[in-house]
User: What shape does this take?
Amino acid sequence: MADGYSCPACGSANAYHDGSLWVCPDCAHEWNPDTAGAEAGGEAVIRDANGNPLADGDSVTVIKDLKVKGSSLVVKGGTKVKNIRLVTDATDGHDIACKIDGLGAMNLKSEFVKKA
Assistant: This one.
């Protein structure tokens, strides 16, 4: 380990550099040392598909058609969603809670939206 990074999840000293991320082979945790300080402080940065940071109350635009699970409805690409709420403890990857006109309340993944 060249730069002395240890895994923030398990504390292992076996971490190695892979591209822009560090990887722990013991627990399979991956992290970026540039954003690790923000995440360690309790504030994970949620970013859109273009890498722009999102905040509560932002407006976003859906970038591709998304099927609604358990329904025949589709959220069309280009749909603007206003007043989003970020969910930092989302275990399923859906880190945006919102209401979409005509569809109601739902959760979205930040990788499928861009900041409006």
In short: The first strand starts at residue 16 and ends at 18. The longest helix spans residues 36-40. The chain has two domains: 1-39, 59-115.
